[in-house]
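Lab manual, section 2.4: Encoding a predicted structure.

Procedure: take the sequence of the chain (1099 residues), apply the prediction step described in section 2.3, and record the output as structure tokens. A sample record is shown.
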Amino acid sequence: MAQSYVGRKRIRKYFGKIREVAEMPNLIEVQRISYEYFLQAKEPVEGRINNGIQAVFSSIFPITDFSENSVLEFLKYDFDVPKYDTDECQQRGMTYSAPVKAYLRLIVYETDEETGAKSVQTIKDQWVYMGDMPLMTGNGTFIVNGTERVVVSQMHRSPGVFFDHDKGKSHSSGKILYAARIIPYRGSWLDFEFDAKDLVYSRIDRKRKLPVTTVLYSLGLSSEDILDYFYNSFSFKKNKSGWVTEFNSERFKGIKLPKDLINAKTGEIAVEAGKKLTPRLATKLIESGLTEVLYSDEDLIGQYLSEDIVNMDTGLIYGEAGDEITQEFLDLLASKGIKNLSVLDIDHVNVGAFIRNTLAADKNENKDQALLDIYRIMRPGEPPTVETAESLFNSLFFDADRYDLSAVGRVKLNMRLDLDVEDTHGTLRKEDILAVVRHLVNLRDGKGEIDDIDHLGNRRVRSVGELMENQYRIGLLRMERAIKERLTSVDVDTVMPHDLINAKPITAAIREFFGSSQLSQFMDQTNPLSVITHIRRVSALGPGGLTRERAGFEVRDVHPTHYGRICPIETPEGPNIGLINSLATFARVNKYGFIESPYRRVLDSKVTDEVIYLSAIEEGKYTIAQANAQLDSSSAFTDELINCRVSGDVQLIPSDKVDFMDVSPKQLVSVAAALIPFLENDDANRALMGSNMQRQAVPLLKAEAPFVGTGMEAVVARDSGAAVSARRSGVVDQVDASRIVIRAIDEKDASKSAVDIYNLSKFQRSNQNTCINQKPLVKAGEFVDSGDIIADGPSTDLGDLALGKNVLVAYMPWNGYNYEDSILISERIVRDDVFTSIHIEEFEVMARDTKLGPEDVTRDIPNVGEEALRNLDEAGIIYIGAEANPGDILVGKITPKGESPMTPEEKLLRAIFGEKASDVRDTSLRLPPGVSGTVVEVRVFNRHGVEKDERAMAIEREEIEKLSKDRDDEVTILDRNVYAKLMSTMLGKELLVSGDVKKGSKLTEDSLNNIPRKDWWDIILKNDKVMGEIEAIKSQYESSKNLLEEKFIDKVEKLQRGDDLLPGVMKMVKVFVAIKRKLQSGDKMAGRHGNKGVVSRIM
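Recorded output:
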């Protein structure tokens, strides 16, 4: 295998016995894919699928005014170019975002007064600004107000229907009470539950309970319809001996006969009481001619009518559907001569009378009463009418604006209830509610199984794109109300779409989400691993999720379906244990939000290299072998019985029954746990500590890769963005400490630049004040492949993650200094800076415009000696490279103070020296106590129109110099490439005309070199086709040069333009001080296996 650039410099041997089959997916793609799916920025404007922003716009538009005379429609949306790039946003404290614009159409109708018909009066189309949309950086993060943030994915209960029971905890008798709950993506929850008396109740949004029949009445069913849906019925006919009915063996299936079974035709006992009616016996009876059985009056008492019994002549009702049959009732039938009777098939063994009993207990008797009852519960205190009650009930579950199951919810509902409904149907249907109640009653009758709430098929992940979609919808809904009111109040004939739109609600909703949501978090940037872990974190907390206090043990526990999806090891210790998890290394999230894990397909006992991703639901259907199952050279299983997972259990299965096999032993743990060598020998609790503590390692002065790694080190360094990898193959043209220029050699597309310039981060401050510093690994003239590591970042060594050091450790007692978890270290470790790290602190000062006059940044500070000003330049700002100690002035600043009564001496001084010297006070920025270090960077920000001081001008000149160097290098390489291409095109071609050269002679390299390069374009050749090629090269060359120039001018303009500062601030200065921290007593040290301790003494 061809080795990479760093692979040639450090040899790594893989000792594993299991071949790696699948490529590990990019570790931050979970976030990136989700957000790209939401924005669809790379998709053509016209051809976007109904997802993300497109779905939000489509669900809210068209917006109609109250009189329906004008409509605002949405056609498409697009993004403008971001104003600042990521680095500029971080420096200026801005949000990295792009303006969203929507193409809207305003249609105004006019109504014919006579016919009432509507016709279109005017149509106006316009692009309208719809607020700024934060963009994701290449590393899966967002820059909000200059700081990097991560939106953590949320694990929540999937929409759909869930069946459960209370495990006998609700009632003192210990009786198990079953319940069902329909959870939509947004909208009202609908619960169904049994009580201790075996009646079925329903609740809407967890409010007061109602008999389930009230909801069924509200759906338009009558009591007969309800009974007919839930129960079978069978009819009886009266004869001289008793009541005769058809023999149906299904009714007696699996039960002991409570009484003798009598053949109606012969009057003989077919089966005696107390015997079980087996299928064989039933078949025998049918063969012997048993078709009808005889019941006595006593047998019918206690059964229930399945339909009303009415006198057809008078309309008098003798008995209603659901009524219990009594002796009096039978006597009444006999006296009226009624000989036919239909009875519900309820035997209290296979079929219970739960719905019938609930119907009897329900005070409501029809749809109107039921609707009013529901209205009183949902809107207590408001006077109900049937119309308002019906519209409320319909809006709760059948209105797409108020209720949405989402595609996931509909798919889950279909799977659980065996329905077949399109996943675009987001509202409930009457059939869905009936099917849920029927399934619940079947559960109570002992048929079917309850759901496991912690199964990963019932929990899904809401990634950043989905969370943003919900937030954007909230903003648009707020805006919709304002648009409706404006459409009604303005003159629609003169108004344009942009007059109706105010984007502030959208911007506010997004700002609110990024600023204060529990899931938008300040990024943990301590080291590259903590970056990746934060991006791959999955939290069950947050809006719409669980709370620490209410989460039980079951939710936090490891579940069999976590295998290969969620790491069973990496989770915090303490109150969040099990609620915050990490995705497994190979896991990915599918379009429905379920976590999938990869497996190799097994065909006829042979393991193929075909990799299939399965979700937890699909995995339950298959038999899956582990990654360490023994295989021979032809990838066939060597053992006859294989250790496999079958729907959550581990079993020994014959090799020909195996369907899939794990792709890697790493697939069941997270990135941090996969960095622990010999993880299989560690105790799980200690491994948990080891994975968590690796994230706390501060980047050291000199990184050193571990002698024993796991192969994950390079992956983490690459995917976190800490180490710089080459975008294209090429030759290194120039290298210095802060930039690498690579000449791409394989670029066929002439419209693309053949130069890649990598500006490295030098001594930048991370969110946790650690130091981000990148160092080049390549030398000028070397060849690098695409994807090769060309520069190391913090905690990386030759492209490998290097969180600590390889040091010699002795496990032995030493005078009690290493008692329990104390650590004793050698003085040489401190002297040689083995564990020394650099931390960067940021200090800022603002010069404001006060009531008494403007504050000033200056070197001229009252009552301060020259010694204290020695490190300040003429503008009053400390030099870069200066050593700063506690109390030293970093930025000199004076503030005007209020006029105070002057003494005669001061008056004299004022008269002699003129300038008022004493009415300013010293408000300089000083280094706080306990901090000393070296100034590594100074940034000066000026308000528009405020004159820049000398230091600001010097910084600006330096930046412009860098930009022009980048531009000049790109132009130089572009010239070299273009003229080389031009020469190869012209060589050997016949000339048509050219000054001294004879017509018809062929161009050689020497003759071309004698002509100045810029005149090559004027040479005319005989071959028209070649001349066309030359013209194309020329136009491409000029457009590339112009593009580079435009880019340069744009960046320079941004630099020279003033900054957007807070109101009242004229100037802001930021000073960055690098602090060198040596290892000292009280510091924590740890190994990768959870072996941690505190330094007690340095010897």
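Check your result against the sample. The CA atoms of residues 605 and 656 lie 5 Å apart.
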